[in-house]
Amino acid sequence: MTDSFDLDAYLRRIGHDGPVAPDLATLQTLVLRQASAIAFENLDPFLGRAPRLDPGSLQVKLVGGGRGGYCFELNLLLRLALRAIGFRVACLGARVLWGQPEDHMSPRSHMLLRVDLDDGPRLADAGFGGQTPTAALRLDPNLEQATPHEPFRLVRAGGDLKLQARIGDDWRSLYRFDQQEQLPVDYEAPNWYLATHPDSHFVTGLSVARVGPGRRHGLRDTELARHYTDGPTRRFTLKSGPEMKTVLSEIFGLAVPYGPDLDRALARLFPAPMPR
Fold first, then answer.
1. How many domains, the chain?
2. Catalytic: 201?
């Protein structure tokens, strides 16, 4: 799978010009730099298209095309890069808890990675949107772990592990997962469902996220938020399609797919006012 992967192009895309090796320092660098350079975004499902998950399509879209993607795309891309460097990487599946009760049991609709290092495995996840961990985390329960942004921890949930982030004074759960390894083909069905089902929030709305030093940028439909690690959140409401396109380009660093498909999709967010 990695034979045709252009690692040099990937490293240029994420802005890394230093050496790489299958070690913890490289892993931490790639996790942070990818989250900073390649935005989480669901423009393809929002435009009525199902993303392709094969290595060639990932490179064309995310590396060469200036686009981002959602969890399957972002973490499969990270997997390609890590394996090209020589890391031992396993794909895992998770049940999303964000915004749900703690006992919520959803399908395995999220992808994450386990990276096996000599001193133990790490969780790496470049694709959880506005709460993407910006560091690789030890798979050690009940250990608060610092990242360039919020602290994270893992807690036991029966036979699973639950990933939590500290938001203010509270610990909020992102998802729960086990150690059963998944193959890339295992993500094809949930990818198709999330990108095409009429009730999927990736189809009905727009979600974009990107991290920066000391802050996170998040967009949900017309609501833009800037979350600061050492200060309050600032929120803005976008007023028009042209303003949305500017935000996607300048704040989230996306090569915006201009055209009638985008205009029609944005019209759902900015409907024309009713005539008087």
1. 1
2. no
